[in-house]
Amino acid sequence: MRAAILSLLAEAPSNGYGLIKTIAAKTGGVWRPSPGSIYPTLQQLVDEGLIEALSEGRGTEFALTDAGRAYVAEHAEEMENAWNAEPDSADRDFHQSIAKLMGAIHQFRAGVTGEQRAAAVEKMDELRRALYKILAD
User: Fold this and answer.
1) Are residues 73 and 44 in the same domain?
2) Are 75 and 3 contacting, i.e. CB atoms less than 8 angstroms apart?
3) Cβ distance 50 to 71 under 8 Å?
4) How far is residue 78's CA from residue 85's CA, in Å, rounded to a whole number?
5) Which neighbouring-strand residues pair with 14?
6) CATH code, domain with 82
7) Do 82 and 96 have their domain in common?
8) Which of 16, 32, 35, 109 is the most exposed place for a label (fewest CB within 10 A)?
9) Could you report the per-residue pLDDT of 82-133, keeping only the tens digit for each?
10) Residue pLDDT, tens place only, 47-86
11) Measuring CA to CA, which residue among 64, 79, 62, 97 is closest to residue 26?
């Protein structure tokens, strides 16, 4: 995520939504990061002094700082590799499954009862535990 964001900001300033759209377009829709992954990464890069916000509020654009431009130049291969990886079908299936799951989860943000939301939380907790069990094996 970091390399993709930094490489795009090396081309031009952008806001989070613009980065999401550009990453999706550049990967043919295979990789469409969520706001939940873009915005924390942007904040981390700000905290590290590699990028800066050009404005405040909704639609804030970000640009590389001098330190960010130096980092991108020093890590040119890493920046290029963010776009060179050709996903295999397992990666594509995995990311598509995540996207489908997130679509279902987003439906619980509004218009559901407290009981439905509690049941969803229980299922997500079960899923999280099951995934950690797979990693532990």
Assistant:
1) yes
2) yes
3) yes
4) 11
5) 62
6) 1.10.10.10
7) no
8) 109
9) 887 555 556 677 777 887 888 888 888 888 999 999 999 999 999 999 988 8
10) 999 999 998 877 899 999 999 999 999 999 888 888 875 5
11) 79
With tokens 């989860």, the residue in question is: 105
Q: Quick one: 30 and 96 in the same domain?
A: no
The vertex-46 CA angle with 41 and 49, nearest 5°, equals 130
For residue 16, the enclosing domain spans 2-86
The pair of three-digit structure tokens given for residue 31, joined into one six-digit string: 């990789």
As for how many domains the chain has, the answer is 2
Both 44 and 9 in a single domain?
yes
AA letter at 55: S
Write phi, then psi, for 64 (nearest 5 degrees).
-70, 145
Query: Does the predicted TM-score (pTM) go above 0.85?
Result: no
